[in-house]
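Bench notes, bay 3.
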Amino acid sequence: MTSSEIPTDSLDASFNYTVIVQRLTGTVKWFNNKAGFGFITVCEPGDYNEKDIFVHYTSIRVTNSQYKYLVQGEYVDFTLVKANDNGHEFQAMDVSGVKGGPIMCETRRTSVSTMREPRPHVPHVPHASARMPPPVRSRTAPAGPPRGRGPPPAQQQQDSPGPAQAAGADELLGFTKVQKKRRGKPQGPGPVPIPAPATATA
């Protein structure tokens, strides 16, 4: 019988069956989520090794009420029963994870719900440098030279050349400084001596 010929309501709570093996382990060969049924391949040595067992979604055991399905390739444990009045001779019941653990549809739901949980609010702590107040600038101007066009008086005295330096500089440049004579009254010849009068002799 093909998958299209398998009725989705093949397992009813009131159907008559006989337990063949209490627990077996198998892998999900395929499962149609929309139709709600599939097959599990037995992977234990024995009379039912590699035998495909029909499984209906009503036989899947879940902890919480949720959408039940199986994932292709996952390992499951189940009870093998033989239906007395059903189209499938062997069917899987009480399907769970290995060793009674959760199946993948449960673990996926848990992962999604964990991702959707809001993260705890962590207050933002600014950096230590951000909490420090800015430095206070002093309003008094630093001591310095007076604001003028010329250099300070001490520097002017230091920079102004003395007479000796000025003379030396002129000699280096090839100039001879001519000293000006002071203007005054013209100096003539000195007083002319007046001869003494001759005395008469007796």
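Next record in the batch:
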Amino acid sequence: MNLPRFGAFFISKRRNTEAVSLLRNRNVCPRERVRACAPILAEYIPKWPRINIVNDYDSTTRWRDLMRFPRLKTTRLLLREVMQSDADDLYAILSDPEVTKYYGMEPLPSKEGAQREIDWYQKQYRTRSGIRWAIALHRNRQLIGTCGFQNWSAEHNRVEIGYELSRQFWGTGIMTEALTKMIQYGFTVCKFNRIQAVVDPRNNGSLAVLRKLGFVKEGLLAEYEYTAGGYDDLLMFALLRKNYRRNG
């Protein structure tokens, strides 16, 4: 079991001898040992996923796994961390004008732009303001798109989604499959109350995906973003936890 050694390391730094004693006592049940060090471990474990350290622990849990970027799997897909080694694949996607034209951004002019984008994804996870997954096929794990949560409001339990997919895979149901798994994770693990999306009214593909997932159009955000020399209208869509449960 990895927990006592891992937990004792941090607790010993705080000179909490009572907690250290509990963690090392094999006669005390694992849950009680976790309870002793939970407040301190909580400072070191990222809130993605937002894990209840005591209640979600059992004797088979490896504590090092709680520190890792969460991987999600579907029938066809692996949702994994975006790495700098993905820069070429991400650049191929975000340099395509057909992919970026409804996303309020210009096509990336160089691979360096993709590297900066990946830096931003990783910073989101470090600062607990969001999380971005690479969408990859099981057969080769090559990045074919990304999806994730951003603009997370912990106070209001609200988050926004973002996503894009290589044009090669449009119309295959891959984005619907990826977002279905991601949204399930958001409501069941992260315990979000509201997941929302802002989308260009002309982006028919994205609108179709959101509606298929149960998102409801709430209204028009007039001249909401300034892009390429003009103000763009965007539509606000949202899915609430209570409606997700009802439809699920």
